[in-house]
Specification:
alpha+beta, OB fold (Dihydrolipoamide Acetyltransferase, E2P), 8 strands, 2 domains, de novo design (two linked rop proteins)
């Protein structure tokens, strides 16, 4: 990638030397990209104002190495104004991408789901479903998927989920979370009419994501530990 201009969102930024920042971007064509940007001396720098999460921007990236130079950044739409739990949830999504997604690998479907999720979080009643749907697309990008066939084939009332084996009937007692068969069937069919199903879905996704994180804590969960 010598020089490209594309739609992007800032996932995270941090100071780097004087008047520079390192930014993690989710880009439409190149996936997650790390870039170095000059932001100037003024606290009212227009570039600094644009390099904030949840603002769609067009970025021009230069360089052939992993760390790009952010040559230009321009607004591509209005900032998505998220508040309270919706804002915390968006920070959670960003942190997942920063910590789990490999750099410089195109992931157009995930980018589209990210855009849809930010809009979905504006509806407080859809917050939990929006998060779970995003997690599913992210897991698919990471090569993780769920095979629910056993929860329809076996009559066990509960199932365990093992990262290496998937769902197994809970015929013996393991030191694992046991998931209700009816809830798993509802998840497979995308039927979230029962709030208990969404609770099971959240616990299942947390187990899988914690495994992928390898014990690394998520700072965003501290914002509202009972909501994500």
């Amino acid at each position: 990638m010598q020089e490209t201009t594309q739609l992007a969102f800032v996932l995270h930024s941090r100071p780097y030397r004087e008047n520079q920042v390192l930014v993690d971007l989710l880009t439409e064509n190149d996936g997650k990209v790390a870039a170095l940007s000059y932001v100037g001396h003024s606290s009212k720098s227009s570039r600094k104002a644009l390099l904030q999460p949840f603002i769609p921007v067009n970025v021009t990236l230069k360089g052939q190495y992993a760390l790009k130079n952010l040559a230009r950044v321009e607004p591509a739409g209005k900032s998505i104004l998220l508040k309270k739990n919706a804002l915390f949830s968006a920070f959670y999504i960003n942190e997942l991408l920063v910590k789990l997604l490999a750099e410089n690998i195109p992931c157009i479907e995930l980018f589209q789901q990210y855009q849809a999720s930010l809009q979905g979080l504006l509806d407080a009643s859809e917050l939990e479903i929006t998060l779970r749907q995003f997690e599913l697309v992210l897991l698919a990008e990471l090569g993780v998927s769920f095979d629910f066939s056993l929860v329809f084939e076996h009559t066990a009332s509960g199932f365990y989920y093992l990262p290496e084996d998937g769902f197994i009937p809970a015929y013996t007692v393991l030191k694992q979370t046991c998931y209700d068969r009816m809830h798993l069937q509802a998840i497979a069919e995308q039927d979230f009419s029962d709030p208990a199903t969404l609770t099971t879905f959240k616990v299942l996704m947390r187990q899988v994501i914690n495994h992928l994180l390898g014990g690394i804590p998520l700072n965003s969960r501290k914002l509202f530990s009972k909501k994500v």
